[in-house]
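=== RUN LOG ===
request id: a7f3
mode: sequence -> structure
chains: 1
length: 387
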Amino acid sequence: MKRIILSGRYSLLLVMILIVYFWHPALFAEKTIVHGDSLIHGLPLFYAHMESLHGGESVLWSNGMYGGHPLFAEGQGGFANPLNMLLASLFSPVLGHQLVHMLGLMIAAAGVFVLARQLNIGYWSASFAALAASFSTSWILCLHSYTASATMAWIPWILVAAEYWIKHPSSISAILLAIPASLSILAGYPQYPYGAVIYVLASLAVLPFSPDARAHIKTNWKKHLWSGSLAILLFAGLTAVQVLPLVELIGQSGRSEGIHLLSAGSSAAPWVKNLLFFDINNSTLASMGSLLIVSLAIGSLLMKMPNRLWGHLLATLLLFNLGLQQASPVFLFIYKFHLIPGLHYHRHMAIFLCVAVIGLSVLAAFCIDAYSRRMTTVLRGSEKSEK
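=== RESULT ===
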């Protein structure tokens, strides 16, 4: 038993091996991903990045677009993202482009694992959460987008850093919070960190309902205030190189006054009918994963959940409803009355489901862990009674 428990410390390694195996054809069999935005968006941008780093045309100004365009300012290329810079400088465009996807998935999976561990979930159950999230249909579907993969890598780490900041407000936790948030902006898809911010704020709503949490806030509210302000200041400084050029383009954007939703979203009937299974005719239904994960997450309600798990449950439900768009009455109410600032600047909301699946996976892992601990207690009790 002791040997099995110790090996649990290395359980995340199994998830990493499975991710590498998933990408085996692209990495070792001379294959390449061609679906979605891969060939028309991701690969050309990665090639432009590689060329600029090796003395080619600068991405600060491209003469081949619209008679001249500040490609760097768009942000979609992730030209200021350290991971992209490293891979573009070391590998060929095809291999480097695919490594962004694979490493992004691995970094994100590790983030889900650490988040689960922060919530006192066991090693194997935390690895289950990492596996459930990284191989959920929502995350797999976004792998056609080079920018989405690079950004999603840091979203679980924003939640990890926020969880640490809630418990230990300090200059260190402020720095740790600013770093993944900044990296997610530099990666080029700001709707993901925007969803993560909504998630974190929603999860805080349950804190006043716990006596321990109320006492913690009462004692540390000044630390939370100044460390949170420090995190925002650091975030602004670290992202300035990308955000300031973007600000100059905002006034020229057709979305500067808001934009209509690209699609009407999922209708409620097929969502209920398919019960979150994959539906090839309505891919947004795929984004919350399998019936098993959903059932386990619901099963967590039967366990005694700590306050922070209730926070993650609330945040998951909110992001899930936002991701369903018009299929959700909750979304319609929030969208109509502008209850969440910024929603009207995005053309679709399914991206929020990629954030919601993190909470869903952690809740499923908590259910497994709590049931395992309960069964262990029962078995040990029966063994003592037999003796």
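=== NOTES ===
The CA atoms of residues 258 and 344 lie 5 Å apart.
Residues 1-6, 271-288 have pLDDT under 50 and may be disordered.
=== END ===
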